[in-house]
Amino acid sequence: MLKITADESDALSAPESKAGRLQRECLKLLRKHKREGTIPTNGRFLFYELEQQGVVPKHYVKPSGEKRARTPAQDISDATMRLREIGLVPWSWILDESRDVTTWRYAANVYETGAH
User: Fold this and answer.
1) Residue 4: what pLDDT?
2) Long-range contacts of 86-94 (CB under 8 A, 24+ apart)
3) For the chain, what are the domain ranges?
4) N or C: which end of the chain has fewer CB atoms below 10 A?
């Protein structure tokens, strides 16, 4: 079992809150990944692992049985963002391979692009 220090716990949301519980579970899982050499990982893998462990459901359901708009994956994203923002998890530990940054080349007019 991976332990969270008192100082680390103080930086997280309240332990009895939904956000606080999920932040702690995400931190434990990410530290396990680090120990096992499986960093970087991504949010989707974290979701699948936490769902398999019973920490989060596959989706949230309203009392009527209808799926809620907010998803457990969004809550995991929020939890890991908090862990990164407060410095408990390095940004490089979680990657999103499905996205990239593209810098478009542009000019004020065609003449400046050299395409004349």
Assistant:
1) 81
2) 86/11, 86/12, 88/8, 88/11, 88/12, 88/27, 89/27, 89/30, 92/39, 92/40, 93/30, 93/33, 93/34, 93/39, 93/40, 93/41, 94/30, 94/40, 94/41, 94/42, 94/43, 94/46
3) 6-113
4) N
